[in-house]
């Protein structure tokens, strides 16, 4: 995004013409330079040597003067739309990145059991949120979207400029992408399978504690939040919610002091704290999803058991359609795929 600077003075009606126009155009980040009109700055006199007045707009090194000209020649911002879900940590990754960058956007909340035609149009491969649409062009997968945002809007960078530091950050983002889905598996499993997932989650936390958060860092990006912090948002927030719901206890502060300190720092960042999902709605959602998933899993195991115990002529008991007779392996596969 081009650099925008505005030279103005607080009592000037002409200055406010431009301020309001910038807001209406959705240009959130510009440098505001307050002029003392009794002692005008050398920069103002340089940029407006004829009238020596405010307002003066500097856009990508080009000077515009007189408020009428400024209002009609303001840079425009491409439309940004985000398709997300209120509970998805991957959608919140993108929300926080846009907020940190100061990018205005339209937010479309998807009902995931009943996905919109637009979502399916923009993400026909995975049919998932989040999807960012920038100037009509869709970008899918949260990590890809975060890197796109950082390249298109370079203010408040989310990745280090140094090539080595950037490579290390991308390594941990990949680690988060690979391991953090374990957290959602905690409420989608039970019994021995759930215990195995809990063990893997604990091992993931050990790796983060022992290798990623060393040297007394406040954030993964030292003193400022960056893309790695955002990538590990499931650990900072969703893990605790799912632990409370399942009754499991994986994260214990005394076992992970560095990680505990990072979680507190992360959740205290205003952009994060002010943009979190509603915790009151979560237990009901998790309960509903868990019951549906476990019911489907149990039904699938019952069908498998009945198949294994017969030879040439199978009778499958379906709770909705009574007895269903199936006479070939291909038909059984079709039936299972359709019903489960």
Automatic annotation (TrEMBL):
Domain GST N-terminal positions: 2-67, 78-157
Domain GST C-terminal positions: 162-285
InterPro entries, per the entry: Glutathione-S-Trfase_C-like, Glutathione-S-Trfase_C_sf, Glutathione_S-Trfase, Glutathione_S-Trfase_N, GST_C, GST_C_Tau, Omega/Tau-like, Thioredoxin-like_sf
Entry annotated with the keyword ATP-binding: no
Key words of the record: Cytoplasm, Detoxification, Transferase
GO biological process: glutathione metabolic process; toxin catabolic process
GO cellular component terms, semicolon-separated: cytosol
Reaction catalysed by this enzyme: RX + glutathione = an S-substituted glutathione + a halide anion + H(+)
Subcellular location: Cytoplasm, Cytosol
Enzyme Commission designation: 2.5.1.18
Annotated family: Belongs to the GST superfamily. Tau family.
UniProt name for this protein: glutathione transferase
Originating organism: Gossypium australe
């Amino acid at each position: 995004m081009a650099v925008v600077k505005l030279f103005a003075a607080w009592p000037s009606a002409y200055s406010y013409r431009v301020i309001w126009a910038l807001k209406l155009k959705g240009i959130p980040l510009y440098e505001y330079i307050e002029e003392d009109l009794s002692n005008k700055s050398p920069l103002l006199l340089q940029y407006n040597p004829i009238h020596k007045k405010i307002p003066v707009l500097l856009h990508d090194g080009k000077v515009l003067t007189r408020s009428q000209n400024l209002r009609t020649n303001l840079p425009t911002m491409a439309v940004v739309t985000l398709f997300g879900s209120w509970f998805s940590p991957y959608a919140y990754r993108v929300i926080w990145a846009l907020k940190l960058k100061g990018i205005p956007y339209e937010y479309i909340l998807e009902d995931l059991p009943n996905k919109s035609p637009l979502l399916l149009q923009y993400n026909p491969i995975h049919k998932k949120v989040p999807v960012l649409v920038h100037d009509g062009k869709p970008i899918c997968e949260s990590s890809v979207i975060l890197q796109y945002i950082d390249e298109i809007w370079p203010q408040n960078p989310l990745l280090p400029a140094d090539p080595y530091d950037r490579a290390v950050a991308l390594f941990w983002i990949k680690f988060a992408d690979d391991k953090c889905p374990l957290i959602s598996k905690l409420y989608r499993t039970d019994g021995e399978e759930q215990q195995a997932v809990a063990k893997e989650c604990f091992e993931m936390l050990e790796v983060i504690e022992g290798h990623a958060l060393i040297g007394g860092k406040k954030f993964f990006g030292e003193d400022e939040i960056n893309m790695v912090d955002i990538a590990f948002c499931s650990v900072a927030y969703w893990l605790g919610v799912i632990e409370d719901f399942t009754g499991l206890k994986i994260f214990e502060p005394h076992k992970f002091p560095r990680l505990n300190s990072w979680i507190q720092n992360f959740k205290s960042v205003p952009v994060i704290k002010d943009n979190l999902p509603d915790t009151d709605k979560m237990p009901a959602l998790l309960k509903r999803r868990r019951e549906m998933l476990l019911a489907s899993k149990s039904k699938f195991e019952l069908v498998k058991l009945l198949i294994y115990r017969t030879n040439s002529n199978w009778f499958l008991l379906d709770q909705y359609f009574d007895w269903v007779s199936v006479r070939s392996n291909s038909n059984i596969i079709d039936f299972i795929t359709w019903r489960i």
